[in-house]
Specification:
Layout: E1 8-13, E2 18-23, H1 26-32, H2 35-46, E3 60-64, E4 78-83, E5 90-95, H3 99-105, E6 110-114, E7 121-126, E8 129-134, H4 143-151, E9 159-162, H5 165-168, E10 176-178, E11 182-184, H6 189-195, E12 198-204, H7 214-229, H8 232-240, H9 246-251, H10 273-279, E13 281-285, E14 295-299, E15 309-311, H11 315-321, H12 330-343, H13 347-362, H14 381-393, H15 398-401, H16 404-412, E16 422-423, E17 426-427, H17 437-445, H18 486-502, H19 508-511, H20 514-525, H21 531-551, H22 563-567, H23 582-596, H24 607-612, H25 619-622
Parallel strand pairs: 1-6, 7-12
Antiparallel strand pairs: 1-2, 3-4, 3-6, 4-5, 7-8, 9-10, 9-12, 10-11, 13-14, 14-15, 16-17
This protein binds iron/sulfur cluster.
């Protein structure tokens, strides 16, 4: 097995309660690197097309990368991959904290859960020994209660990733939470875990991670950490967290307000980074081996939730429970975040589902009878927190909201599909493409659905910052759609895909070049890994992910934005009067498919492209 891998994965047969250890496929690791790349290869090979995401044929795959757990800057990440119950296509979630390193040091690169357990279980892994344990006493309990109870079952300090009631209740956007506050949030993989009756994974261990050239690796990592420590960007993220971008997005006119009915928020100063620092910040929180510390340790100091503490909100959460719901009460936003972490809910999809329900109520599409007497009004901060409770428990109107905006709009009808703010079922993050056209392309081409960190193209647009990991990320004028700039989306998707595969945080891509990363990967694994390998690996993985989606029926026609963004002009702000017209989006897509070597009519990777990437075995499936 290549260096930097543990060389073993756990396969857990849940119906039989049987655990087997098998070698990590080294040939696949060399092609798909690890993390989300390697997990996707296992998914593609082992999960049949059309498998029910919540049924026994779906598999839930946890995978670390070759850099996870090393001293490389921010090597904290692990990925989870399965068919998503929210989107029905390739589902991926990724998280930092310390769980990824703990899993790897327990002796394994990853875990594949198969089938459905007859009773609630948790998987305990200590120093290479894995056992399935009864989780009945904590079924129905929150993430923090579960972690406390699991810690009590062992004299060894364990690192835990768990689901809360939302995952058990099969909320379609349930998250997996590690270290109590860190979410593998998107795509509803917590519901897949709940369907399998796996409450948690708890691990510990001291297995060494063998590196090909330890000295060179440590020197390279140290040089990069020293460089990052002197970066102004690090200081900015450490001081203000990700919410530092709220003012920038608002000033560009793309800050979603009242379910994307507007792009500037009149109360931005009550929910921006400064407000967060003034009102709730207690400490900066960092993931394993990270010099940045963008996490927020917070405490609610006043009002009805005074005394509660935890982590967050970060930018997306602050917008989705805040301006997107018309709320400017930072205490309520923070409380909604805490509850999502404890129930195991994705904050973006939860906030977006609430905002969508509020607009449906405003328009009379969702009636008081359907809400059980609740008035779903924009701006009602207490209601937002209350609805998070109801979603996790699938109680009352929460049962409808737990389905996510796509299914909600299908059930409610009345033209609500126009303002159900998702792409392929995944609720959109808080950047309005009417104010930065290229971000719309990034939303529709992201393999897991409407997502911001697949292409991260909001960085050179809303934040006016280049992404160093690609050669050129410049966007001339965010208000103007330039099909040639589709190349930036392709390059950023490919480069950032590598981070999810090797186990690094994508924020490093802002500050470190691909050359920097190549040095780390080569000295860790021993592979002859150059700049071209970096680019090609990202592209190969991206095409494999697209193949997973194509296999589930995705084609060009579904690479589409909600009608609101294409037809309803923003009412005010710098982008007032703007939409991203359908023809404009189609022109950018055509350019994008051209740069990707995908078929123009279907958006499927062509046989020529698949062959070029060494993915010949997919050709017969796709064509
Ligand atoms: S930059 Fe933030 S999210 Fe990324 S590893 Fe560091 S603390 Fe974690």
């Amino acid at each position: 097995m290549s260096y930097a891998f543990m060389g073993k994965i756990l396969r857990v047969d849940l119906p039989q309660g049987k655990i087997t250890v098998e070698p990590t496929r080294d040939d696949w690791a060399q092609q798909f690197l690890g993390g989300a790349g390697l997990a996707t290869k296992y998914l593609y090979e082992e999960v049949p097309q059309g498998a029910d995401p919540l049924g026994p044929a779906n598999k839930l795959i946890f995978m670390t990368g070759p850099l996870t757990g090393t001293s490389s800057p921010s090597a904290s990440r692990y990925s989870v991959v399965a068919r998503s119950p929210l989107t029905g296509i390739w589902g991926h979630a990724n998280s930092g904290g310390t769980f990824g390193p703990a899993l790897k040091r327990s002796g394994f690169d990853g875990i594949i859960f198969e089938g459905i357990s007859p009773k609630p279980v948790f998987l305990k892994i200590i120093d290479g020994q894995a056992e399935l344990c009864d989780a009945t006493p904590v079924w129905g309990k929150t993430v923090s209660e579960t972690e406390d109870w699991i810690q009590g079952t062992s004299p060894t300090r364990l690192t835990v990733a768990a689901i809360g009631p939302a995952g058990e209740n099969l909320v379609r956007y349930a998250a997996i939470i590690n270290n109590r506050h860190r979410a593998a949030g998107r795509c509803g993989l917590g519901a897949v875990m709940g369907a399998k009756r796996v409450k948690a994974i708890a691990c510990a261990g001291q297995a060494p991670i063998r590196l090909a050239d330890e000295k060179l690796f440590q020197e390279t990592a140290k040089k990069q950490i020293d460089y990052l420590n002197e970066s102004l960007l690090k200081v900015a993220f450490e001081s203000f967290g990700t919410n530092i971008v709220s003012d920038m997005v608002d000033v560009h006119g793309g800050y979603p307000v009242r379910n994307w009915q507007a792009g500037t928020f009149e109360q931005i100063d009550q929910v921006n980074a400064q407000a967060l620092s003034d009102k709730v910040l207690v400490s900066q929180v960092r993931c394993f081996a990270c010099p940045i510390a963008c996490g927020r340790g917070t405490e609610i100091r006043e009002g009805k939730w005074a005394g509660h503490h935890g982590e967050g909100p970060e930018y997306e959460t602050a917008n989705m429970f805040g301006a997107c719901c018309g709320v400017a009460d930072l205490q309520a936003i923070t409380m909604a975040n805490y509850r999502c972490n404890d129930y195991g809910l994705d904050t973006i999809s939860a906030g977006s589902s609430i905002a969508f329900a509020m607009e449906c109520y405003e328009k009379g599409i969702l009636t008081r009878e359907q809400t059980g007497g609740l008035e779903l009004r924009f701006g009602d901060a207490d209601l937002v927190v209350d609805l998070v409770d109801k979603i996790a428990a699938r109680q009352g109107v929460g049962d409808l909201l737990a389905e996510g905006t796509r299914i909600m709009s299908q059930r409610l009808g009345g033209g609500s599909e126009r303002f159900a703010m998702h792409v392929k079922g995944l609720e959109l993050p808080a950047y309005d493409p009417r104010a930065a056209k290229i971000t719309g392309l990034g939303f529709v081409t992201a393999n897991r659905g409407g997502d911001h960190i697949t292409a991260y193209v909001q960085l050179p647009t809303f934040v006016d910052m280049p992404m160093l990991v690609v050669e050129n990320s410049a966007i001339r004028d965010p208000f103007v759609a330039n099909p040639e700039e589709a190349k930036v989306v392709v390059d950023m998707e490919n480069a950032l895909t590598v981070f999810d595969a090797v186990g690094g945080c994508k924020f490093m891509g802002i500050m470190l070049s691909a050359d920097d990363y190549v040095g780390l990967i080569a000295s860790a694994t021993g592979w002859p890994f150059g700049l071209q390998d970096f680019r090609t690996s990202g592209e190969r993985i991206y095409n494999l992910q697209r193949a997973c989606c194509v296999r589930e029926g995705i084609n060009r026609s579904q690479d589409l934005l909600p009608a609101r963004l294409m037809e309803e002009p923003l009412p005010a702000g710098p982008a007032a009067g703007m939409v991203i017209e359908r023809d404009t989006l189609e022109a950018m897509k055509s350019a994008y498919y051209g740069f990707r070597g995908w078929d123009q009519e279907t958006g499927t990777p062509t046989p020529k492209k698949l062959h070029e990437l060494g993915l010949d075995d997919l050709i017969a499936d796709m064509w």
